Amino acid sequence: MAAAALPPPPTPAPEPSMNLLEPTRLDLPIFSRVRLATADDVPHIHKMIHQMAVFKKLTHLFSATESSLTTTLFNSPPFTSFTIFLLEVSPNPLTTATAAAFPPIERVIHLDLPLVDPERETFFSDKANDITVAGFVLFFPNYPTFLAKPGFYVEDLFVRDCYRRKGFGKMLLSAVAKQAVKMGYGRVEWVVLDWNVNAIKFYEEMVAKIHDEWRICRLTGRTIP
Amino acid sequence: MAAAALPPPPTPAPEPSMNLLEPTRLDLPIFSRVRLATADDVPHIHKMIHQMAVFKKLTHLFSATESSLTTTLFNSPPFTSFTIFLLEVSPNPLTTATAAAFPPIERVIHLDLPLVDPERETFFSDKANDITVAGFVLFFPNYPTFLAKPGFYVEDLFVRDCYRRKGFGKMLLSAVAKQAVKMGYGRVEWVVLDWNVNAIKFYEEMVAKIHDEWRICRLTGRTIP
């Protein structure tokens, strides 16, 4: 056989680690949803509230137990009183049953680096389907008198450490804002610690207005007259 | 008759206005009570909310109408959602029927100068018995997560101008705090404008703790994503 009849040797696939100009980008989807929490979610919610207390340097104020959360939450229809949206994530597409009170909000994000969740086992909400709890938002109606219509007050917004800076905080807060619009409510309001510059930046990017001129006052326990 | 038998001439009563060292002090009682407001009180509540907007320099935010207040308030049992305590005053003793949900709190204060209420006619809640609305407090349950039990958030505390500095603000705020204790709630919370030094002084005298490190964030109307 003539050498000319030979097919050209195949071009070797480039080693991703060797091509410094165009590294191969991975496409790792994360399937996420925001759904109404129920009493079954209390153990995960309790752990996240504790992590939030650590982050806010307020563990001296932390006295919540699973039992006290169970007693005081989920006693009223959603949105009429204290309400929790839960953020769940999975590497697999989610099968969501339509909930009457609140159809879950879903979103797929695409990562180019693998996400390592060191507490994945602890926060499984559905191990068989590889679904993990990644954050929550707790809110309830408030009443801005000048508007004379209810709004929502967001007491807590929390995304677990390894899931931050991926748009999930915005997804949770937007879910509350959308629910407010749906109910004809006038305002969504919350507070932020003045040293939490990342949170302030995040809120300002969401076009929230920061009001510098108000101060919080509290009567607690023994100081209640 | 001998002159000696005559009784001594009576000592003339001193003219109060002439005795500069010991002026005669009047004792003008004001009978007051804190009671649950009802839908019938909306016209008075609406007027006071407007006066409050003027005082807080926030009339640009004021859009409440009697109709919007009526639609959004008094839709739930007291204390489970938005709740209003009304302050009423009268120069006459009050006859109070015992209310099931909240037995009114009464108090008599004693003034040594007559109190002139230029808007008495406008704020009569019971003209036949000379009872006038003098203030209100609007509050609703909130949920301090770290405590994992509800508290009350005081949205508004207002005493009409001529009734200020007589203890009525404290009477209203204490009524909320006492209700919180009665319900096993953990905290009473509200906000104050940082330039409102009189209010801050008043709250500090009530042993409230002022938290300087929080900032209020709001999404309103068009800025809701």
From TrEMBL, chains A, B:
Domain N-acetyltransferase span(s) in chain numbering: 82-225
Keywords of the record: Acyltransferase, Transferase
Entry keyword annotation includes Aminoacyl-tRNA synthetase: no
Pfam families per the UniProt record, alphabetical: Acetyltransf_1
Annotated coiled-coil segments of the chain: none
One of the record's GO molecular function terms: N-acetyltransferase activity
Protein name: N-acetyltransferase domain-containing protein
Organism: Dipteronia dyeriana
Taxonomic lineage: Eukaryota, Viridiplantae, Streptophyta, Embryophyta, Tracheophyta
